[in-house]
Write a structure and sequence with these properties.
By secondary structure, this protein is mainly α. It has 10 helices and no strands. It has one domain (about 5-255). It is about 75% helix and about 0% strand. α3 packs parallel to α6 and α6 packs parallel to α10 (about 230-255).
Length: about 260
């Protein structure tokens, strides 16, 4: 790796993100915050949901925001750069291995995912107070889970960005992202599916389940959640799988 070239590309992506801060903020937070307001404020305030649901909901929204930000910030620029602007050709001329160009994209996506997730906590706190009770008993475990979630989202964006055409972006969100969200235990714990044992076991193939349950287990451990050991193992497995697949797809597309 050429460290100077790598950091220069990372600084450029940071500059672009700063220039597009408002659109990025809207596309990342608008939908999750609407869910927080409707389910956490309106439904709880109307008595249709118990007050404890506020604390249960917030980690799931954080996972959703991180995954959405990571996938979007990596996949969409890659689709445009490979198929329209061809800006990726300039990056490929950088004096470093092709794989490091892809890794820089992943690192930039991770940073955006972490920023999105951390911003949800004060925003959700402001919308849902009083009643939100977060308990960060194991800060190092929380940091580890957050980093693994960010890596999963950015690596997933790398895979999708190198595999999906511009004409199929809507289909990607309809067939991949939307089912992942609704069956990702973002609005309910994994244990809530105990009356549907086949579905409960099937959703374990969804990496968003481990993201939601991991953040729930580190922020509101009093609620039911998957064991943190299972969460860390699951996230590590999907991170390695998606990163390897993304690097292979990126290399193949760059060479073509």
């Amino acid at each position: 790796m050429n460290r100077k070239a790598f950091l220069a590309m990372l600084a450029r992506d940071a500059h672009v993100a700063r220039r597009n801060f408002v659109p990025l903020l809207l596309q990342t937070f608008l939908q999750p915050l609407m869910f927080v307001f409707i389910f956490g404020r309106v439904m709880v305030g109307s008595g249709y949901m118990p007050p404890e649901y506020k604390s249960l909901l917030l980690p799931g929204i954080m996972a959703l925001s991180m995954v959405g930000a990571g996938i979007w910030s990596v996949a969409m620029p890659l689709i445009g750069e490979f198929q329209f602007t061809h800006e990726i050709e300039d990056r490929l001329l950088a004096p470093m291995d092709i794989s490091w160009v892809a890794i820089e994209k992943v690192v930039a996506g991770m940073l955006q995912a972490l920023a999105a997730g951390l911003t949800v906590i004060p925003a959700g706190w402001a919308l849902l107070r009083p009643g939100v009770e977060l308990s960060l008993q194991a800060p190092l475990t929380f940091v580890g889970v957050a980093l693994l979630v960010a890596l999963f989202s950015a690596s997933g964006g790398l895979v999708l960005g190198c595999s999906i055409g511009q004409a199929h972006v809507g289909l990607m969100f309809s067939l991949v992202v939307a089912p992942m969200i609704f069956f990702g235990c973002t609005y309910y714990p994994w244990s809530a599916l105990k009356n549907f044992p086949i579905l409960q076991n099937a959703v374990l193939l969804n990496p968003l389940v481990y993201a939601s349950e991991g953040l729930r287990g580190t922020l509101v451990p009093r609620f039911p959640h998957l064991s943190l050991l299972a969460v860390l193992a699951g996230l590590a497995f999907f991170d390695v799988l998606l990163l390897a697949a993304g690097l292979r797809q990126f290399h193949r597309k760059a060479v073509d």
